[in-house]
Amino acid sequence: MTLVNVLAPFSGRALPLSDVPDPVFSTALVGPGAAAEPTSSGRVIAGSPVSGRIRKLHPHAFVVVSADGAGVLVHLGIDTVQLAGNGFELLATEGGEVVAGDPMVAWWPEEVRRGGRSVVSPVIALDARPEALSDVRVEGQVAAGEPLFVWIRA
């Protein structure tokens, strides 16, 4: 059994997935997890939630896979793919190795809000069952790099 500490990608308010304004995430269709909403309106750095290899890297979302195969998706805001990268800056390279907390993407939540989109950001344990997660943060303030949830892998 392996415990994977999945960290908050940035500082903000922790929320349950059910509060994400997108049914694909709020119903855990993609997988279980939690969400964070940045409290800063200026430039926010989203860090890697786990150590591993960057499997996918887009301006609005990224997936990091740990050495033991735990894939974690961070989706920065909702419907942000429609922004075509505007308001986002890549800080890493797809395929690269990262340590938990390493900078992945810089983004400007206020620009996302101005475009009428939510900045609530799901952090998802891919290919996991809900009961595999423990200590899930669903309320209060969370600092970048603090545990958002623990993924218990068999």
Report on the architecture of this protein.
- The chain has 154 residues and is mainly β.
- It has one domain: Glucose Permease (Domain IIA) (Distorted Sandwich), CATH 2.70.70.
- Strands 9-5-6-7-11-3-2-13 form an 8-stranded antiparallel sheet, with no helix packed on it. It has a 3-stranded antiparallel sheet with strand order 1-14-12, with no helix packed on it.
- The radius of gyration is 14 Å and the shape is globular.
- The protein starts with a strand and ends with a strand.
- The model has no long low-confidence stretch (mean pLDDT 97).
Output the strand order for the largest sheet. Answer: 9-5-6-7-11-3-2-13
Radius of gyration: 14 Å
- The CATH superfamily label reads Glucose Permease (Domain IIA)
Rounded to the nearest angstrom, the distance between the terminal CA atoms is 4 Å
The total beta strand count reads 14
Secondary structure class reads mainly beta
What is the CATH architecture descriptor?
Distorted Sandwich
CATH class: Mainly Beta
What is the strand content?
A: 35-45%
Largest pleated sheet: 8 strands, antiparallel
The structural domain count equals 1
What is the helix content?
under 10%
Gross morphology: globular
| Low-pLDDT regions | none
Tally of DSSP helical segments: 2
Integer average pLDDT: 97
Tell me the CATH topology. Answer: Glucose Permease (Domain IIA)
SSE string = EEHEEEEEEEEHEEEE
